Amino acid sequence: MKVCTSKSAWKGFLRRAKRAHPLEHVEALWGHETVDTFRIAKFAPIRLGDPTKGAEPNDPEVDGLYYTRKEAKRQKKLAKEAGMTFLGTVHTHPHIDHEHVPSETDHIIAVKDGEKMMGIVHLYKPKRSARFQCTVRWWFPQQPLLFEILED
Fold first, then answer.
1. What is the pLDDT of residue 57?
2. Is 76:89 a contact under the CB 8 Å cutoff?
3. Which CATH number is associated with domain 2-139?
4. Which of 3, 8, 41, 77 is the most exposed place for a label (fewest CB within 10 A)?
5. Domain ranges of the chain
6. Which pTM was predicted?
């Protein structure tokens, strides 16, 4: 599988992510899916919620990005109304010591929200530099496997 988008759409996302730096930034991905390609047509803003109010039991860290299941449903509806599919989300890891690898929490939320794919953008400024460095990786969300030890 591959992921593609237009240069202007990608530059728009990066511009907004750089403005949010050093905070994490998240956007919804709308577009189309074929047998071997996810084509992102639009990076759409996501309404972030207050992580201290209405958090579900076992919700991930409240200091990261937080949006509700209601917002995920809204994104699906808006994408459909625009003649597209809600493909998933993309968010930044804005610190030099972070990576572009999704956390277990990233996977769990993406699976819950029915995301087909997710992106992690490692966007940071190295020491002694004013220029941003950027790498991106795309992932299929995965549900963790349950593990059980049986009696002999």
1. 40
2. no
3. 3.40.140.10
4. 8
5. 2-139
6. 0.84
